[in-house]
Batch of 4 targets.
Target 1
Amino acid sequence: MFGREIPDVTLKTRVRDESVGGPNPFRWQDRKTADLFGKGRVVVFGLPGAFTPTCSTEQCPAFERHYDDLTAAGADEVYCLAVNDAFVMFQWGKHLGLEKVKLLPDGSGDFTRRMGMLINKDHVGFGQRSWRYAMVIDDGVVAGWFEEPGINDVGSDEDPYTESTPDNVLAWLEANPR
């Protein structure tokens, strides 16, 4: 993955817009991954899904807690990407009380598939989801890669979470300043 250019994919997001009015003042906004990840140094972590156990109790909250450390070590932004729709990602962010990590919906799995991280999790009724990983992107190119071992489509894993931790990403950022 090192040296690989990030695929340019359109993510369908929802943004608050008071001009919409009503009880749901949000509008659709397309976000291009080239715009989000193409300039500067960003951290992106992918996970199986919103509201799932490890993602909700460990991985996403850990990146939120370490956000200031990651940005102090050189990350311009920290994004969480999951194969969920914008509505689910919004509610999950509210549920977790996220204030710093930005959630990105990859509802169709296009970005995740083009990164080689789309897996089948039918064994737990999830359908197509992301394998757990994290990466540091420098100006649209993968500079640091942290993938959980044992990627598979049949559930022959214990949902590992050892490589894609914010601690590992932080150590890499500190060892590889821009």
Target 2
Amino acid sequence: MTDDRFFLDATGLLCPLPVLKARKRLMSLSPGETLTVQADDPAAIVDVPHFCAEAGHTLVSTETDGPVQTYVICKT
């Protein structure tokens, strides 16, 4: 069973909601833990990496499968 604390389905949400929800979810994680975020908002391609850089989190990976992007963010 997957722990929902580490996965955020932000598909169907438009800017800035994917980043805002990711920020809120990351607050509950400990440094070093990762959050996987799925989004289909075209702006997320720019917003998620920018958020990680500004907040100091590490963007571990980015994958695209059709309209859905998957981001793995490591909390620092």
Target 3
Amino acid sequence: MSRLVVVSNRVADPRKAAAGGLAVALGDALHTTGGLWFGWSGHVVEGGAAGEGELHLQQAGGVKLATVDLSAEDHAGYYLGYSNGVLWPVFHYRLDLARFDADYIGAYRRVNQLFARKLMTLLKPDDIIWVHDYHLIPLAAELRARGARQRIGFFLHIPLPPQQIMTAIPQHEWLMRAMFAYDLLGFQGEADLQNFSRYVQAEAGAEDLGDNRFRAFNSTVKAGAFPIGIDVDEFAELTHAREAGDMYERMREEYSRRKILLGVERLDYSKGLPQRLRTFKALLKKYPENLGSATLVQIASPSREDMGTYSDLRQEMESLCGAINGDFGELDWMPVRYIHRNVARKRLPGLYRVARVALVTPLRDGMNLVAKEFIAAQDPADPGVLVLSRFAGAAERLEGALLVNPYDTDGSADTIQQALQMQLPERQARHQRLLAQIRTQDVHWWRHSFLQALAEAPVNA
């Protein structure tokens, strides 16, 4: 059986409880197959030479963890600069926030070359290599240049924008060429797959060979939509564990006379948090019966706070929360409970379960696993309602959610009111459909379907 080699920007010990969707999914894949997980160590070496970094190896059960340090210069250009200052905003349709500094792409290429050099020393001839996310788009091309002949697949966890937006990236042609070094490209949804098809045909003159196979640059790549899921049974078990149970009981007691609306995400401009607060304010104005009754609990965990855009967002959030509480709050009721820190993953199911409505309303998102976690945590006898942005990848398949346009403040407020007033039989029927959908395409399906497609794809060695 071929060994699985996972490559991602960050590496997590699969023996420990993981915090994010990517870490949960990859930990599950490696726990099942064993193998190697390669990526950045998270350490920044001040004064280190650009393009160089020490390799660290450790064994974690059946998985070998291999990590590389980055110099301060590489971290600034590759991670903060190109990955999160160019690709992240552009791929989330925010050209206005992109910082097109010519030095960034040099650092991005340099770190991908560093990863390729270090990884080549660890590879076996029959390995299957699975590369993840926007930080590492050119990795396969760098591996091929060094003689790698293994099957290499790539999965993009964030959206892929339309051609007109992609072409705003300086040297986007180089990124597009790099994609054709892979054997399989995986996207979260059909919209991303269509954007890729139109982009490569219009910009590279790629030939459509049918069955989502495209030929350009003397290479053929297969593309597909593989929506990532969660481990539904594992998350349901967490719901009944002590930590989640304690959270549920405490929140239920404290908010016994309230209806909780819940938001859980990183503090990121793609998540539509200011728009959500303005929508909640509109809800209280249009439907005053919610005064003293509805409480928005918004968890926004810290994210990239060393970047100016994020500190501006934090200030805006704090200002909006303060204004809503000041305008509508009473001595015994505050409309918004805003928490700017991480909440342990083991406690989240209890929060999900106590919520009457989950607000998952990003401006743009690749998938959004919070929506699926909320569904898995619900009591089927008395489930909450999922209000979901139509611009989240999850909206393609989660029939039963109430879809909203997060830019439409009044329309979204009307939909939230519908969720708050929804009667039990309809809530149960919607939850049944949603639960069946996330079970059908869970994390095991995601892993199996992608790796099976990679095993069947022609090799671009």
Target 4
Amino acid sequence: MNAVDNAGSGGMAFNQTLFGLAILAFILLLIVEKYKPYRVFSPKVYRESLVTNTTAFLINNVILTILRASSLFLVAQQFSYMGLLSGLDNGPVKWVLAFAFFDFAIYVWHVAGHKFEWLWRFHKVHHSDKSFNVSTGFRFHVFDLLLEIVYKCLFVVVIGVDAYLVLSIEIIELFFIFFHHANIRVPKEEIISQFIITPSLHRPHHSTLRMEHDSNYGIVLAFWDRLFGTRKELVPANIGLDLIEAENFIQLFSLAFITERKIRQLLGLIPKGKK
């Protein structure tokens, strides 16, 4: 086994450990929000949310595994030698810079998911949850995940970092995705939210109102929303989307092929264009 193989094996083992810790965090947050929820949802809504979201996680991961989607990162790594950070030695400076660049890249991707209708048709699946709980962090359309993997592979090439480092950062961000979707109260949250995304900051992002959920796009660092003026501090009246919902995985998958505009036309809420 050569040095590259050793590095790859070490990176894989580290990522498996990180992922295990992330799942443990998910279970702990699930327990906390079950017994001390910030907001009480009806048992029916909460149960449908939990079952649909975990089913989406399991099926999406089966599909991604069959497609060997994660192997795209290793392909991308073959071209990362020309990236921005490729000249830096592996160490704390490169890791911190890579994390900051990655967090910003995901912020940009998140904004794009709201601004471009062809991306929103997939991303809106995440927003269709009528509940707000830690399992909402699993609620994604598989096509959304596939597109995001391609985007992250471009990040590997442009930034010039090891694919296993990107996967490690991604798993760390998974901790924060679980955290800011958790239906919990966080002590001193008004202070913590000045630096990182917390549940109170992310709840507006799941508001039914478009003017409210087009905000707070950050995943970890609160800096990007402040810098680009997309931060909103408010308590949403309602969670989810007003015209569309999904009570199971099949409906969840199908949402990508149903647009709000078509629904409004069918309901006669907006006039049809002249022929």
